[in-house]
Amino acid sequence: MSHSPQIDVVRRFYDARGDLDVIRSVVAEDARWDVTEGFPNGGVHEGLDRIVGDFFPFLADFSEFRCIGDAFYEDGDQVIVLGRYVGTTTKGNQFTSRFAHFFTLAAGRITHLRQTSAPSPSPAPWRTDPLAPCGKSFSSTRNASWARTTPTPLPPARSSPPSRRQRRLAGDVGVGQRDDLAMSNVADVSAARSVGLLLSTMGRL
């Protein structure tokens, strides 16, 4: 579904592009914004004044910031949007980032937004990774931090205690124990012969 009264409200919210007058016209006074951590000004913001005063100021770090809805779904008072953030920081770095928005509406206004995106847009320097799917962008500072990571050294290997056969060769096994080893060797040889006989028989079938 791409059009309905509730979806049209969400579309007007996207088309506002930071225009606070439009945002105030489509967002309820007691709205709740639940924004994923890592996104600019992420966290929970209660009430329209807190949303406008504490969340939206991140737009000052961008010369352009757009929410592009690629797919809209409606179920009762819920509108779900899958889309992309697209824009340019004030330093001229372009970015794109996928998002999922879960809106709740009442009386023609947005009362609740749950948001998630990966990776989250940031005013830090961005670059486009040619190996990333769908033009996904990653922060160059984060990549540099990853490149400097030193692998954790493995703990030193612990040597195993010598076997009875090794101890016998070293003269550290008693006579009774040598007899036990001899019987063990005989059993090993018998088992090997049995396996060989079985394989030979199967080869003739």
Please describe the structure with a list of short key phrases separated by commas or semicolons.
Nuclear Transport Factor 2, Chain: A, two-stranded antiparallel ribbon, elongated, 6 helices, six-stranded mixed β-sheet, alpha+beta, disordered C terminus, 34% helix, 205 residues
Can you walk through the features of this model?
With 205 residues, this protein is α+β, with helices and mostly antiparallel strands. The protein folds into two domains: 5-139, Roll (Nuclear Transport Factor 2, Chain: A); 164-204. The chain contains six helices and eight strands, in the order ααββαββββββααα. The chain has helices at 5-15, 20-26, 48-55, 140-147, 164-169, 175-204, and strands at residues 27-35, 43-46, 62-75, 78-89, 94-106, 109-118, 126-128, 137-139. The strands form two sheets. The protein has a six-stranded mixed sheet with strand order 2-1-6-5-4-3. Strand 1 (27-35) and strand 2 (43-46) form a beta hairpin. The protein is elongated and about 90 Å long. The model is unreliable at 124-151, 186-192 and 197-205 (pLDDT under 50).
